[in-house]
Design a protein that fits this description.
mainly alpha; 7 helices; 76% helix
Length: 136
């Protein structure tokens, strides 16, 4: 546990972590009404999970059943790469600001959970960071 606290102290001294602590990063951005692009991006992310690993498993089983290993050797990585491209496109469409807001919030929550009140002392000693350092 001591190693985890030491690592948390190290990261708490970084500008990004101090900024999310000082600004009390939250998830307010998720309260906005979703746009068409956000909905389509979320659907693409879900689709990437549906066509990702299940398709690879299906192709591997098909390769074994048909006794044609090239189906699994070529088809598996190919379909997985396609699912990754769909995932990245979905993330871009869903909105980068939501990802940034989530990571800022989770960073704050984890550091506060590990360090407790000590986090406020670290931020006070290192100096306050402006809210402009974290753009949600």
């Amino acid at each position: 546990m001591q190693l985890v606290k030491k690592a948390a102290r190290y990261f708490a001294k970084k500008n990004y972590c101090q900024a999310v602590i000082v600004t009390q990063a939250d998830l307010r951005v998720f309260q906005e009404k979703p746009t068409f692009s956000m909905i389509m991006g979320t659907l693409l992310i879900i689709l990437s999970y549906v066509i990702g690993l299940p398709a690879v498993v299906f192709l591997a089983a098909l390769a074994v059943w048909m006794r044609k290993p090239l189906i699994g050797i070529i088809g598996g990585p190919l379909i997985y790469a396609i699912s990754m491209v769909v995932f990245v496109i979905g993330i871009r469409m869903a909105g980068l600001k939501h990802i940034k807001a989530f990571f800022a919030w989770i960073t704050r929550v984890v550091l506060e959970k590990i360090l407790g009140d000590e986090i406020k002392e670290i931020c006070a000693v290192e100096g306050t960071t402006s809210a402009a350092d974290v753009k949600n």
